Amino acid sequence: xxxxDVAILDFGSQKITVLVxxxxxxxxxIVKGKxxxxxxxxxxxxxxxxxxxxxxxxxxxxxxxxxxNCKIMYLTVGVPTEFCYSTxxxxxxxxxxxxxxxxxxxxxxxxxxSFDMPHHTVVNKGAVYYILGENNRVSSPLxxxxxxxxxxxxxxxxxxxxxxxxxxxxxxxxxxDFNFVCSAYAQGLYLFDDEExxxxxxxxxxxxxxxTVALFxxxxxxxLSSFSLGGGHIAADLSTCLxxxxxxxxxxxRKVVLSIKPKESENYEIMTDEGIVPISMNVANxxxxxxxxxxxxxxxxxxxxxxxxxxxxxxxxxxxxxISFLKGGKxxxxxxxxxxxxxxxxxxxxxxxxxxxxxxxxxxxxxxx
Length: 369
Description:
Nucleotidyltransferase, domain 5; globular; 369 residues; alpha+beta
């Protein structure tokens, strides 16, 4: 790795991804090496197989090293939301007389907050907004002059059990320099610019077996939730209800078009060990639509449980590979949420598909640091 390169490891629902990359002269992300290793994944905030996790991490790192012909010395790890917890605190500090606000003053603000969370560690923090004086709200106070500064500050915690498990695995791979970032937090900074985030961002990252729902404002996270439902459950429904192999169900899901009303006689065709099998379009579409309704209900439960409210007219920003790839999936989700849904497009590049938004966001975060 050169001095301009960084390496990241990101935990997806199905695969562990390791990227080695840098920025070019136009600030575009360049991926020099990439490797994906399948693993058992996680559910409800726990890895399904801790025993095999270390081997999967080791294989992913070795594969990325071979891909870019380099030795990975340091690593930024993206933490899935199911292992994270977020909270906000309002703090303030007064000075004896007006002064120019400097970086040390901001750091002192963050340090004033205290938490009683022995089983979690703060890994990320950012400001939702700052207030100078009594009512002068600003996105950044650096260089401004006042005698009082207040702020709504966002803190993201990660379960110590996750940090311990992953840290031990990395140490076995001879990587002793690593840090952690909540993947959803990195996505908020990567996918949306400062102006967008100042007006609130409601993001839904629907993956293969997990979905993250987050509300961003400024450089902070106001609300953060997750649940174990995703595109893999849609394929599982097709497999169970239609009595077809799971891999055939995944192939069928890629053919489903929810945006049309098929005739009774119209079928999808899938290939199985018994040959080509016709599947009623109406039946398949109904199965997929029903699971999207379940996902929408879970998203609504997240929104209703949140402490911080937001304007009803905000558009849902959809990313991840669970629903974004589905033809008509966005519109079905919008119908059940009773909200506008817009698919977030990644910057064009080597990895610009929806399911790469998390690992590319972690890469961008690592390069920014």
